[in-house]
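User: I'll paste a sequence; please echo it back and then give the predicted structure.

Assistant: Echoing your sequence first, then the prediction.
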Amino acid sequence: MKAKLINETLDNFEKKSDPLISLGVGKKALITKWLDEMNIKSYKINSDFSIDTQKGVDLNKKNLIKLPDYIKFNKVNGYFDLLQNHLISLKGSPEIVESIFCCAYNDLETLEGCPKYAKTFQCWNNKKQFTKEYVTSLCKANTIIV
């Protein structure tokens, strides 16, 4: 519950502190600030504000309920780790993960917003137990661990 309140407070603060965000002005700076706070390195912000990374993304145990609305990963040339948060949504997750995509130990009831491709997809121990068939309907993966 505490994590949820923190995320909602941050989202509201960000929207109120920079009213031009809805116009796309200052969005790149906001994205950069969040990536820096999450210690994400070697990234590129594309013209559509999606994010490509050359290394893995470790968001393990960051107390996240969801990724901020202004964050949308595109291609990650490594792993994308969302392990042990309080996620209720995968919105903002990458389209492509060249290694492991892990969203295990969260509060997910759906995998909507997950990558379209991941070498390995891991999603055990969530609010809902997902099947390999369900994962396959959303993501092409070489290995699926449910």
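The chain has a mean pLDDT of 90. Residues 2-145 form one domain.
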